[in-house]
Amino acid sequence: MAVRTREAESAPKEGAAALGPALELKHVSLDLGNTSILHKVSFRVEPGTIHCLIGPNGAGKTSLLRTILGQMPHEGVVKIRWGARRGIGYVPQRIDVEDLLPLTLRDFIALSCQRRPAFLGMARRLRAEFDECMQALGLAGKVNRMVGQLSGGERQRLLFAQALIPMPGLLILDEPLSSLDRQGAELIQERVRQLADTGMTILWVHHDLKLVREMADAVTCVNRTLRFSGDPAELLSPERVLEAYAP
Amino acid sequence: MNALHEMLRAWAASGADSGWLPSTFQYAFVVNALLSGLVIGPLLGAVGTMVVAKRLAFFSQAIGHAALTGVAVGILAGEPYTQPFVSLFAFCILFALAMNFARNHTRISSDTIIGVFLAISLAIGASLLLFVTARINVHVLDTIMFGSILTVNDTDLNILWGMTLVTLIVGLVNFNRMLLSTFNPALARVRGIRVRWQDYLFILLITLLTVASVKIVGAILVEALLLIPAAAARNIARDLRSFVAYSCIIATISCLVGILVPLQFNLPVPSGGAIIMVAAVCFLVSLVLRAAVPALRDAA
To answer: For residue A166, what is the nearest residue in chain B, using CA coordinates?
Structure first.
């Protein structure tokens, strides 16, 4: 039987300026049935940094994120040292909303971010944050459109928006750029940079190695096991990536 | 609550006597029927929106059909055939929980699992009904299958009031959680929602509502009242608020018109059938509106 250990420490690190938490994984293994998804993966995410997670398809990146979120029965330790700002924002790859369902963007954010039933309207405390978020992500003119009516890229921006209400300490993104056009992708990247500047810790599953090189403070490559973790400028050489992505 | 029912019946009777209400309102069973329609309509309409959003129409149909078996079990167990509530509730809840457990713990697709359980339930029900019909008048089964709103009494109304209270509390507190759990379980968990718990809670809610509505709409047609008003509302609604509101309005209108028209025109139609036919007309109107009004058509 898998032994799951998850620790959360309240006190911020001494002298830490960042608002977001530090994240530490020690010997994390995950088995589903007889299949080993992750084997003894260890790495550390520093507070207030953009940390990208890369690896080939089926390498276990999404499973690793769900392990960090405490949603997978794993072995090993996932430790979150919370900073001044608590809370996790999660941007999933997709949501399963029927195309014809009368659910507007405003409804979806209300549904995700408040206790009061969404059909009674958005809570007053959310409205300013919602308007600001929609404005920043180029969705301000579409708040009354149905979610099923949105393009794939607009849906991704909506999922990104919900993760920021309320503003979390740790933001976890599972390939948010997969359906975005160039303009949309640049919008998200810019916003992520701004959030990192405020001290938020960001863990981002990414496929575009060029962008990882440009944006990330640190990169971790998994392919069932840990292949490398550290400075993107040093680690993302073509030879190293080719070797890491090999089965 | 019986005193309230008595007061309303007296008020309706005096209205009928003085001529500002139709003469049928002087009868207690008519007032009971309308009261039950006024309670169950908005309730099923509101919960129906969640059934549609969660794509559980087939699931609720299976529970409705299981009610038939529950009634047969109740009669065989010696309960009164007009109110076999203990067996009805117990069987339907066990059936729904078993079906949901199988749905969650196998890799078989949801509709296949529900289809299998529906077939099992109908097979058991059909077999038991053979024994049941030897004990009671076979026409009693018509009222179970298609509803008999004219036999609604204070006990039935009290059960409906109880279900309304439970549904309001559970539904209002958990509305967002139940829907977000459907749209993305991982995201819901990050938001602190216990997805599996919400899943079972909703299943229990629609089971209890279904059973409480059997006498009014009938076991065969109860899921239709969960589904059709919400489906009609979806055709014309532009947001969640109007979706829930239209669904409640359509379900309530269907109940009231479905109860009153056969009474007023002396039509030999069971209440369940009449209610669902009115709901079906509303659905057709919603389709026409959707086709005719560009703003509604473009919303999809």
So the answer is: B191
